[in-house]
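Board notes, transcribed. Complex of a protein with adenosine-2'-5'-diphosphate.
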Amino acid sequence: MTGTPRNGVELPDLTLGTWDIRTPAQAETAVGAAWASGYRGIDSAACYENEDVIRRAIDSCGIPRDGLTVTSKVWNDAHDEAAARAAFDASERRLGRIDIYLIHWPGPVPRFLKVWRALEKLYEDGRAAGIGVSNFMVPQLEILLEHARIRPMLNQVECHLWFVDRPLLDFCRREGIAVQAFSPLGAGSGVLDDPVLREWADRLGVSPAQTALAYLRQLGIYPLPKSSNPDRIAENAGFRNVRIPDDGMAALAGRNRLVRTNKDPFGWFGQGYE
Ligand code: A2P
């Protein structure tokens, strides 16, 4: 199962989050387990400081590079056109190749428009097969779409049982922007202990994590679960076999509390930040 390509790159239905992977051994274990379990995407970023170990893990696991879609992101310290291009060059040196490149956080206008100019050129030069954004809310997307020559294929945002931003999802669907969920399991915030999630997991005979991921996928979202444990990496891939009925989807939708576990992009909107 793969997504509809927008700018010529396939978005895998399952991508491994890697934000806390640091050492070569952790990377090799996680990347190897993910590949064996059918993950076809690996998500990294300059600020995770793991691009070099991720690349070495891909090589040492003998993964055919063309079978994998690797994402990286430009960090907030490179928010102008030249700096963003230099940041891409540095990330590309560490990763060997970047398939999808994202603006990690919007920051203020017009800075993100300058960064977008850099990403458009990288795309046109064939340096990245897909470009997009992360942590963009509707007003920021509206400004971006008004000025973009090349539209973002993807918006990677926090999304899980307790935080589903419906207006953002609707906007992205209307505009043909794929939504990828980071922290799809709630990043240790207690989502996996939600009683309604557990009830439906029991009824379906699967785990809460598989139910949480299937719920997002059935909402049309691409989940990006993070784990460094090979058993949980394999378990999470099992969401593909889960089908939640309509009454289950409705019950799970009732658990949305609109509570983030991560930073609010508007908190950084128009303000100074690291
Ligand atoms: P670990 O890396 O030890 O597996 P999210 O993807 O929402 O950010 O959540 C990541 C957190 O959830 C990590 O702490 C990860 O721990 C844990 N986790 C990942 N998969 C599972 C799972 N199947 N069951 C329980 N916890 C999980």
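Residues 15-187+221-227 form a domain with the TIM Barrel fold (CATH 3.20.20.100). The mean pLDDT is 93.
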